[in-house]
């Protein structure tokens, strides 16, 4: 892949702009391309800079991917935060919004939960990314807490995780096996919420 228009030299002090441009370019590539085909060269070519410029902001490709994942988790949190409703209806609405996000942004979703592995050592998620992941699910945790006001913080968190695990499993299966006939999404969510919340 060649760069037709090289990126103009950034003025002194605009390093954050380049970092953001690298994350944006990577995010766009991952929306439509196979994650395994991603490389420093494809990212820098899409951004219009040299590979050296990328290493001024990121240690390696996994660190860049963590920044992209952080952006995607932030987007998911924004979408879930915007969901309305109260009580069980809000929990159901959040569940449907989560499934809709996974379906609409299939490329993003695959990246968010991809474990990027290196040959020299297993990858470990950055603490910041773990926190962002939990923050994305805060709307669901709050909604579950409102339905179960007498439950402990640990119980609310565990119940929310049970819901998320079931939603994540359905979302992953629908991508991996699109020909598999899954139950109606609305009925699935209704049943799931009844089973988990009691």
UniProtKB/TrEMBL annotation:
InterPro entries: Homeodomain-like_sf (IPR009057), HTH-type_TetR-like_transc_reg (IPR050109), HTH_TetR (IPR001647), MT1864/Rv1816-like_C (IPR025996), Tet_transcr_reg_TetR-rel_C_sf (IPR036271). Transmembrane segments: none annotated. GO terms for molecular function: DNA-binding transcription factor activity; transcription cis-regulatory region binding. It holds the Pfam family TetR_C_33. Gene3D superfamilies: Tetracycline Repressor, domain 2. The keyword Magnesium does not apply. It comes from the Bacteria. Residues 39-58 bind DNA. Residues 16-76 form the HTH tetR-type domain. Keywords: DNA-binding, Transcription, Transcription regulation. PANTHER family: HTH-TYPE TRANSCRIPTIONAL REGULATOR BETI, HTH-TYPE TRANSCRIPTIONAL REGULATOR RUTR. This is TetR/AcrR family transcriptional regulator. It comes from Kribbella jiaozuonensis.
């Amino acid at each position: 892949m060649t760069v037709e228009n090289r990126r103009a030299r950034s003025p002194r002090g605009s390093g954050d702009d380049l970092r953001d441009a690298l994350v944006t370019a990577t995010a766009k590539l991952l929306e439509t391309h196979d994650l395994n085909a991603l490389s420093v060269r494809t990212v820098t070519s899409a951004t219009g800079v040299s590979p050296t410029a990328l290493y001024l902001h990121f240690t390696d490709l996994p660190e860049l991917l963590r920044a992209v994942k952080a952006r995607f988790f932030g987007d998911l949190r924004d979408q879930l935060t915007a969901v309305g409703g109260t009580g069980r209806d809000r929990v159901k609405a959040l569940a449907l919004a989560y499934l809709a996000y996974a379906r609409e942004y299939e490329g993003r979703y695959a990246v968010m939960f991809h474990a990027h592995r290196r040959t020299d050592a297993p990858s470990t998620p950055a603490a910041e990314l773990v926190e962002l992941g939990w923050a994305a699910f805060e709307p669901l945790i709050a909604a579950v807490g409102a339905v179960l006001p007498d439950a402990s913080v640990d119980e609310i968190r565990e119940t929310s995780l049970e819901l998320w695990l079931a939603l994540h499993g359905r979302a992953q299966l629908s991508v991996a096996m699109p020909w598999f006939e899954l139950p109606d999404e609305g009925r699935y969510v209704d049943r799931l919420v009844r089973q988990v919340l009691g």
